[in-house]
TrEMBL record:
It comes from the Eukaryota. The keyword Zinc-finger applies. The lineage of its organism: Eukaryota, Metazoa, Chordata, Craniata, Vertebrata. The keyword Coiled coil applies. Residues 166-200 form a coiled coil. Keywords: Coiled coil, Metal-binding, Zinc, Zinc-finger. InterPro entries: E3_ubiq-ligase_TRIM/RNF, TRIM8/14/16/25/29/45/65_CC, Znf_B-box. CDD domains: Bbox1_TRIM8-like (cd19802), Bbox2_TRIM16-like (cd19769). Residues 267-284 have a biased composition (Low complexity). This is B box-type domain-containing protein. It comes from Cyprinus carpio carpio. One of its GO terms (molecular function) is zinc ion binding.
Amino acid sequence: MADHTKMEESQNTSNVLCDACHGNQKLSAVKSCFQCVTSFCETHLENHKTAARLIKHKLIDPVDNLEDYICVKHEKPLELFCRDDRTFLCSICIEIGHKAHNIVPIEQESGDQRAQLEKTQAEVKMMIQDRIKKTEEIKSSEKNNNVKSLIALIERCQSELLEVIWQKQKAAEKQAEELIQELEQEISELKRRETALEQLLHTEDHLHLLQTCSSVCSLPQVKSWTSNITDLNTEIFKKALQGLQENIKMELKKFFEIIHCPHRPSVVQESSASDSESTDSVPSHPLLVSEVL
């Protein structure tokens, strides 16, 4: 338990040095005193634990901006907060212009603002998760865009048709990349805001927390991703592929019918008949079925 306490003190005081230490070997401060406006290491803090006139001094976790906690008008600790005027007060300030105001201890206001920070942090985390999920949906949608199953048939088509198909595919991929990039940028921004919220939630500097809270509590201006965008702009592309596939099926059926019935003149005539005739009237060749699948 003692080791744990020492570790916590070391973490809290690593950046604040004792003002009472001399020379270049200053120790880390463990507490700061409002009345003395001084930060003390464990050794120099001993008087505040034993001397009668010092025991009543208010000690806080060490801060390097201790002078900011002192009222410049009355040289008293800023221990109170006026919710009406949104300003810090000392015990004398209350009597001058703040008698009927809503006054609370700075620790209480800090606690209330910390609760708001936690709420905002939870909302930011949810926004991050929503965007990560949406990113995965887009990636999955792009992976499931079934073009490869048609490649064997498309290779038999003219080269310009294949070029058109790949152009459409590249356009869909580009759009997906742009959406993912936009989402990742928002995720980065939200993570930076989450980091700022996390740091502010763990600060012991009440003054800094209250001064910074309003700027980080507001949610970042980001795009609404509530609409379904996973289909991208591939619908027309998919319909065109389906039409092409049906045409290829029909032509291949005619092709195999001609190959397997070379002595039937009617087959050639039937193959040149209107394309509006149902392809179900032409028997499916096993090889054709495997080709399509």
